[in-house]
DNA sequence: ATGAAAGCGCTAACAG
DNA sequence: CTGTTAGCGCTTTCAT
């Protein structure tokens, strides 16, 4: 007998709906005998509370939105994985919407979140987003927002980010320590704040050391990274190390390395910023500085929970980096 | 003025709630002038219907559940990606829950789906699931179920699957055509129905050709595949081709190939069953038979939509395979 | 063309 | 200890 309701139980037992409601919640007011009768009947009727009704009443859906450019991406995956794991403990579920890096869809999605009265939204901005007015509406609707990874340049919002600066610095220092002199550094889309932060930090370290040659290149996709690498490794003076800002770039560079049968680390060293999966699929494994989507997810959850508790001040939080020795440098 | 309601609009305009409701829906009964007034006010008040209330009333949440072992998996990703893309067109959203390959969590998750009165659930069984009684309850609750990939062995359910048989056959035939004589065939967890189907089909083709030597091995994870490959490639008589049942296995095998500096395809050929991303990251690119999570997602959606329209008979549907030449065979 | 009323399933203030 | 009542926001007969 599926889809039993409080009303049905009340009718069978000839008591009031509110008594049933309270009994099921183990309310102290209700007598033990009534409680038992109710509980038993609920059991046999396989009663399950209607979350939709509860939501309407309580004005709390216990659902978080997660908006990402695309779910087909290792980094966002592990973020989502962490968030799902974490919020489930508090009885929340996730409503995941992809923006496809399209600001118009992004706005659409926010509307869906509003209409569904989600308890909060985790958002990673699309590459194309420049105007964040649409996000103000969420504030007005009292829906807390926690931005992650691609975050707006605006102190009015809560943001959790990778420690891009720190990570890029660690990688740069590792390169210097290994006495690399002729480095190819491949970064991603220059539009992105994460690219800028990583680039600035990397450059800063490198500039302290004038004896090192660094070529800076930018690739939006794996294929571009591959052809950039191809170009550099065909020079008479091959790079003695490559820095890859992301997994996507690493994958492109490594394809070139395989194509040209370049020996790592003998002929050239490789270091990447990565979440950790891709560095492990190559031999030798790639040395990387961890930028963990998983830990970012956990941090974002912490922050979200604080928002729910009514924290007012917005902050920008960072996930620290970790150096992981592979064997490629 | 966020969170306007029909009631609020009605009060301001001094008309009834039902009129407002109708006006907003462009109901023919309502006069043009009233409609206009209502629409305008709704606009300025930034009225947005409360989906929760609508759901309660209509008993239709317009949310689908998606239950997968883990979201951190390329194949499920592309499945989810396709589903999200597709159902959005019909105004549905997704509630994704991970089972972590734990049957107990699976049951928990079903409960969450029931309580939230989702319109249907897409489910990929966990590796460990043997008893599917818990899924019967969903039927009783009138929540349609569409199983995908790891499906129960039970005709009472709707299932959409990869054409495992066909795909394995295509790969086997490609190996024969290339005159490979000493093949290492690595499959996944023997418990899984998908492993069985692929293995059976592959074996059947191979057995028709007695002059070919095939070693069958099984690996639960990438690392195991790697060490299996390692073992075989250290034999005096190296395999002249490797068949990889999945991306996970391919990744493991390729790591070994890199470690031992084996030349592909000169020294050994590689062929895989894959969704297409991983084969493309190696050089030469890996020849594979496509088993697309994306297309599976689309198919699953079609089936779900039919269920919603009240189709009674359950079916098992297959996504056809496609041969993709890489250069590794 | 519009309104009143009932109800989706649940909770909680108030009353007894 | 239990019941009555009201209401969350919306849709939909049924009247008028």
From TrEMBL, chains A, B:
One Pfam family of this chain? Peripla_BP_4
In alphabetical order, the GO MF annotations are: DNA-binding transcription factor activity; transcription cis-regulatory region binding
Q: Which SMART domains match?
A: HTH_LACI
Q: Does the keyword Transport apply?
A: no
Tell me the keywords, alphabetical order. DNA-binding, Transcription, Transcription regulation
Q: Residue ranges of the HTH lacI-type domain? A: 4-58
| Listed PROSITE patterns | HTH_LACI_2
What InterPro entries does this protein's entry cite? HTH_LacI, Lambda_DNA-bd_dom_sf, Peripla_BP_I, SBP_2_dom
Q: PANTHER family of this UniProt entry? A: HTH-TYPE TRANSCRIPTIONAL REGULATOR GALS (PTHR30146:SF109), LACI-RELATED TRANSCRIPTIONAL REPRESSOR (PTHR30146)
Tell me what this protein is called: LacI family transcriptional regulator
- Organism annotation: Lacibacter cauensis
